Amino acid sequence: MVTITAIAEQKIKELMVEEKDIVGLRVYVKGGGCHGYQYGMAFESKMADDDTVIEKGDVKVIMDSQSAPLLQGAEVDYVDSLQGSGFSIKNPQAKTTCGCGSSFSA
After folding, report:
1. Which of 18, 42, 89, 95 is most buried by its number of CB atoms within 10 A?
2. pLDDT tens, position by position, 31-84
3. What CATH number is given to the structural domain containing 90?
4. Sign of torsion, CA 16 42 10 57?
5. Total structural domains within the chain
């Protein structure tokens, strides 16, 4: 199961207000990056039958059937620091990660 921090939940809600016809935030894993896999996120207006959906309050996080196993146990957070702000994923299944935090190997 993927968890969503309270800060990430609030930020997702704020951003969803600005978009139309959004059902949730899709979190996915695709091939690429310097370690083999790369995280991605996008607001989604529809869901597929085989999607996994995690709900926290009014927020839905959607994962496709191939990404869900690679994200098992991960935490979606929102970080606001001197280095910048944005969503981050802490994934216990990642054996190695790159310095930017968006690429990993499983």
Report:
1. 89
2. 765 557 788 899 999 999 999 999 988 899 999 999 999 899 999 999 987 777
3. 2.60.300.12
4. positive
5. 1
